[in-house]
Structures are given as C-alpha cells and as structure tokens.
Write a structure and sequence with these properties.
six-stranded parallel beta sheet, about 35% helix, 8 helices, alpha/beta, globular, about 220 residues
Length: about 220
C-alpha cells in the first residue's frame, strides 16, 4: 500500500505490536497510510508469531533484503510495543548482511529490555521460561547500542502500565552514552497501545514530531 512517495529510495516497514502473540490492526495499515500521507513509502510486515528468537528477526531481515532488492536505498523501521522491540533488534543486533541494514528507526512504547520487568507474556513467547541471562541480555536493545547504531525516534507515555516508560529511558540512556543521534518524547498521560494516538490528548502530537524527524532522515545528504 503506497499513497505517494516524496522521498524516492526510502522505504519504511511498519511492525505492529501484539506481544509476539498477535498483530494489532490499529498499528498496521493505519500507520502505513499515515506514512504515505506524509510522503514516505511504507508497507506493513506481519512477522512470525508464537515462535522463539531469532525467527522474527530472521524474517524481518529477509523482508528488509527484499525491499532493498526492489530498489529501496534507505530502510526505516517503525514499530510499536513488541513490534518496536523487533524493530530495535533489526537496527541494533549484530549479524545483519549488508543488504539487511537499517538506516533509522521509530519506536512507540517499545519493549526494550528483556533483563528487567517487561510485558512477561511477550518475553516467554520469544525467549521461553528458562532464558539464560546471556540470551536476555542479547535481546535487550540497550545492551546492543554502539556508536555505529542508526538514529532513533522513541516515544512513550508515563502512564503505560504494560510496558513501563523505564524501557524508553533505558534505551535513550544507552543511545546518549554512545553518542547516537536520537529524539525521545515521554508524554505524561495515555495508556499502552495508542497507535497513531488521534484524540489522545498531548500524546497525539507524536506523529507531528515524528514526521519532521523522519523527513530529516530521508533528506538527500549535502
């Protein structure tokens, strides 16, 4: 689904949330339509569910490779909750082939850490009941940040009870420590799973803020 593309050569992949158990509809096609409306080509990718790591990551990397083979020079990811976790893994985890690299990522109320309290059902699906400390660390976004990581736009709400805003703060701190360009917005009010957040008070401005930031990422260099 593409409305128009004012940024030729850039493609954004939308990753809906759902705790690795489902794909939330309001975080899928509506988000791709919004990206089309701001001039960014986008598509929804429904990654595998109820499977263990690294199956979702491998599937997303294959999709990135397909989009690049189809002509996308720059790939951006936008993910929500568990989809945000997967977007972050694809952007940060080692092992991606050259055609599977990510140039920027937008995360909404994302699970970022598997080492602290999180949405437990998602962690159990992805890692299992007896996940080792090493596995939990290797799937925690804050532990994967390096100075070579791509830019991030991250947003959350302080009232989120399912994925506490601590997850965003942990990733933001790691990005800052490594000098990675990033934007962070934590709004005072709003529940988990807001999606585009239309009519949700102050949090509704996240799309305006993200639009400006995304266009900075897709602008031709120079």
């Amino acid at each position: 689904m593409t409305i128009r593309a004012e940024s030729p050569g850039t493609h954004m992949i939308v990753l809906p949330g759902g705790g690795y158990a489902e794909h939330a509809p309001h975080e899928a096609e509506p988000v791709a339509r919004w990206l089309g409306e701001i001039g960014v080509q986008a598509s929804v990718f429904r990654y595998p569910l109820h499977v263990r790591h690294p199956a979702p990551l491998d599937a997303l990397r294959a999709e990135i490779g397909r989009r690049r083979a189809a002509g996308a020079q720059r790939i951006g990811l936008i993910g929500f909750s568990a989809g945000g976790h997967l977007a972050g893994l694809a952007a940060l985890a080692p092992g991606a082939a050259p055609d599977q690299t990510v140039q920027f990522a937008v995360l909404g109320y994302a699970i970022t850490s598997m080492q602290t309290q999180t949405y437990r059902p998602a962690r159990l699906i992805l890692l299992g009941e007896d996940a080792s400390p090493r596995l939990r660390r290797s799937t925690s976004l804050d532990a994967l940040v390096s100075p070579a990581s791509p830019p991030f736009f991250i947003w959350h709400t302080a009232e989120d009870r399912y994925v506490p805003s601590e997850h965003t703060y942990r990733l933001a701190s790691a990005l800052a420590a490594s000098g990675v360009p990033h934007a962070v917005h934590v709004f005072a009010h709003g529940p988990h799973s807001l999606g585009l957040a239309r009519g949700a008070g102050q949090a509704a401005i996240w799309t305006t803020l993200a639009s400006a930031w995304i266009h900075e990422q897709v602008a031709p260099p120079g």
